[in-house]
Design goal:
By secondary structure, the protein is of the alpha+beta class. The chain has two domains: 61 residues; 165 residues, Sulfite Oxidase, Chain A, domain 2 (Alpha-Beta Complex), CATH 3.90.420. Helix content is 21%, strand content 22%. The protein has seven helices and ten strands. The strands form two sheets. The chain has a five-stranded mixed sheet. Strands 3, 4, 7, 8 and 9 form a five-stranded antiparallel sheet that branches. The two termini are 25 Å apart. The structure holds the ligand Nc1nc2c(c(=O)[nH]1)N[C@H]1C(S)=C(S)[C@@H](COP(=O)(O)O)O[C@H]1N2 and molybdenum atom. Molybdenum atom binds next to loops. This is Molybdopterin-binding protein.
Length: 257
């Protein structure tokens, strides 16, 4: 697997200069924010950004990726395609901002989900309480901005039902997440209320395993992989822009394509 985490050795900025037309095009299509740094670019693909052709490969893969999924143009009322059980990849493909052997499993007996912000029920939830809620299952495609995808079978609690349960102000702008591995994330309220946005606990009929976000992770059909936080520990409903791990480094926040 390509590791997207290459913090060392930032390249000469002149190299990106050669890619100005491509960069401009990606910015125009809102695929990159102004501030996408060279560091973020190298994280994005794991490519060696010291080699100009590889910078171009990276940018082209972002460009192609979007063209392939543009048909899904986000619409809060529209459902994304679903797939059949025979297409599901077991186990799923792993990604994080570090390698799989660095995953720190969450201790379910001590784990709680903290709920805060613009909600009437500001309590913490245990896993048993969450597991007792009605479940929804969906077989959807997971698309990582690095240019790979897989079909996965996720089940858990619809985020819209959970927001209703906690008395969330559904006119608020954002739902923000904190995770056990310091990967803050956030989505717009329309996406949070989308029927294919769930707090997932199971994958392909079994409890999600540690690398894939046990005990609780977000799965949405309408956003790229990096908008789906794993190992969630807190949910906040807010009107203050919360940003996110990759978003703060220049990746598009909406990422719904
Ligand atoms: N907590 C946390 N969630 C995360 C990440 C991460 O590094 N930490 N990586 C994101 C990225 S880039 C992708 S593609 C997906 C990968 O999910 P998977 O391992 O279940 O396929 O998780 C997303 N959620
Ligand atoms: Mo990703």
């Amino acid at each position: 697997m390509r590791s997207p985490f290459r913090p060392a050795s930032l390249p000469d900025p002149a190299i990106l200069g050669d890619q100005k037309p491509l960069l401009r095009d990606l910015k125009r299509r809102k695929l990159l924010r102004g501030g996408l740094s060279l560091g973020a670019l190298s994280l994005l693909t794991g490519c060696d950004v010291k080699r100009p052709d590889s910078v171009q490969d990276a940018l082209l893969s972002i460009s192609r990726l979007n063209d392939g999924v543009q048909a899904w143009l986000f619409d809060p009322t529209r459902l994304a395609p679903t797939y059949s059980p025979s297409q599901v990849l077991v186990p799923p493909k792993f990604n994080a901002y570090y390698d799989v052997d660095k995953v720190k499993p969450v201790d379910a007996s001590r784990w709680t989900l903290e709920v805060s912000g613009l909600v009437t029920e500001r309590k913490s939830w245990t896993l048993a309480e969450l597991a007792a809620l009605p479940r929804t299952e969906m077989i959807i495609k997971h698309i990582c901005i690095e240019g790979w995808d897989y079909i996965g079978d996720w089940s858990g609690v619809r985020l819209s039902s959970f927001l209703e349960l906690i008395g969330a102000d559904r006119k608020a702008r954002y739902v923000a997440f904190k995770t056990a591995d310091d990967y803050p994330s956030s989505i717009d309220m329309a996406t949070a209320l989308h029927p294919q946005t769930i707090l997932a606990m199971d994958y392909a009929g079994s409890t999600i395993t540690d690398p894939f976000g046990f005990p609780l992770r977000l799965r949405m059909s309408t956003k790229l992989g990096y908008k789906n936080p794993k190992w969630i520990t807190a949910i906040e409903v807010t009107n203050i822009y919360p940003g996110g791990y990759w978003e703060n480094q220049g990746f598009p926040w909406f990422a719904g394509l």
